[in-house]
Automatic annotation (TrEMBL):
<dbReference type="InterPro" id="IPR010979">
    <property type="entry name" value="Ribosomal_uS13-like_H2TH"/>
</dbReference>
<keyword id="KW-0238">DNA-binding</keyword>
<dbReference type="InterPro" id="IPR035937">
    <property type="entry name" value="FPG_N"/>
</dbReference>
<dbReference type="GO" id="GO:0016829">
    <property type="term" value="F:lyase activity"/>
</dbReference>
<dbReference type="GO" id="GO:0006284">
    <property type="term" value="P:base-excision repair"/>
</dbReference>
<dbReference type="GO" id="GO:0003684">
    <property type="term" value="F:damaged DNA binding"/>
</dbReference>
<comment type="similarity">
    <text>Belongs to the FPG family.</text>
</comment>
<feature type="domain" description="FPG-type">
    <location>
        <begin position="222"/>
        <end position="256"/>
    </location>
</feature>
<keyword id="KW-0378">Hydrolase</keyword>
<keyword id="KW-0479">Metal-binding</keyword>
<keyword id="KW-0227">DNA damage</keyword>
<dbReference type="InterPro" id="IPR015886">
    <property type="entry name" value="H2TH_FPG"/>
</dbReference>
<dbReference type="GO" id="GO:0008270">
    <property type="term" value="F:zinc ion binding"/>
</dbReference>
<protein>
    <submittedName>
        <fullName>Formamidopyrimidine-DNA glycosylase</fullName>
    </submittedName>
</protein>
<keyword id="KW-0511">Multifunctional enzyme</keyword>
<dbReference type="InterPro" id="IPR000214">
    <property type="entry name" value="Znf_DNA_glyclase/AP_lyase"/>
</dbReference>
<dbReference type="InterPro" id="IPR012319">
    <property type="entry name" value="FPG_cat"/>
</dbReference>
């Protein structure tokens, strides 16, 4: 903190979601606070906030010595470069996004609530206010499948596809179970699984270098991304349900009484 922005280079026009204040308004200001709002990263610089949502393939990469030559706008991975001044002259960070689908979002705002995604966020699952009773209230009358509810950022902030798979596995619960039909015991079990799964993920990542974070995340996952492998709890084969642009993994032995979920969007348990 206290590091002064020397230059900001917007490389990808598609990533920039706000134009007033301009990105250049950050130049000459010092970053004084870092916060997280769900999946949004908030770098405060006085009265301004540089807010980023990295989506699936975004990444923030710190460098002690950034290239002196300004980057050229293009179709590559680089979306944003922030170069710092003294005493970090030449250091800074780059924001990149891999893949052909570009969902990275960058905002400069005076109030973080100006970012639509932040204004709609539900409660943080690691906050003290996220009690079992509060969680039960969120699920009351909710007709969707529990997997979809957990991923909905307006219901609970910060849980994505990977950790919703992990939470449901830890809670021994089918991803297709309607949220409103959970018993009081199931709600309590799921609430506990949310807390323990996310807290363990944060603890495993503490102090790791950026280059090691993705590998650490995968190493801590029991079912997500492990289709065809043996479940570490019961030994059953981990299965997958695929949708048009995402997929989820689960263990039949732990979560669905041994039944396999059909691989189609409106699937129910096979009879």
């Amino acid at each position: 903190m206290g590091r002064v922005v020397e230059r900001v280079y917007p490389v990808s026009v598609h990533a920039l979601k706000t134009y007033e204040p301009p990105l250049t308004a950050l130049e000459g200001r010092a970053f004084d606070v870092v916060r997280r709002h769900g999946k949004f990263l908030d770098l405060g610089a006085g009265e301004l906030h540089l807010v980023m949502h990295l989506a699936r393939a975004g990444w923030v990469r710190w460098s002690e010595r950034l290239p002196a030559v300004p980057p050229r706008p293009g179709k590559g991975r680089l979306a944003l470069r922030v170069r710092l001044g003294e005493p970090d002259d030449g250091a800074g960070f780059e924001v990149t996004e891999a893949g052909s689908q570009k969902h990275l979002a960058v905002y400069v705002v005076r109030e973080v609530e100006e970012v639509p995604g932040i204004a709609r966020l539900g409660p943080d699952p690691l906050s003290g206010d996220f009690t079992a009773e509060a969680f039960a209230g969120l699920l009351a009358g909710e007709g969707r499948q529990i997997k979809r509810v957990l991923r909905d950022q307006s219901v609970i902030a910060g849980i994505g596809n990977a950790y919703s798979d992990e939470i449901l596995h830890a809670a021994r619960m089918s991803p297709f179970k309607p949220a409103a039909r959970l018993s009081a015991e199931e709600v309590a079990r799921l609430h506990e699984a949310i807390g323990t799964t996310l807290a363990a993920a944060v603890e495993r990542s503490r102090g790791l270098a950026l280059k090691d974070l993705k590998a650490e995340k995968r190493s801590g996952l029991r079912v997500h991304g492990r289709k065809g492998e043996a479940c570490p709890v019961c030994g059953d084969t981990i299965r997958e349900v695929s949708f048009s642009d995402w997929s989820m993994q689960y263990c039949p032995g732990c979560q669905t009484g041994g039944k396999v979920l059909a691989d189609r969007r409106m699937s129910r348990l096979l009879k």
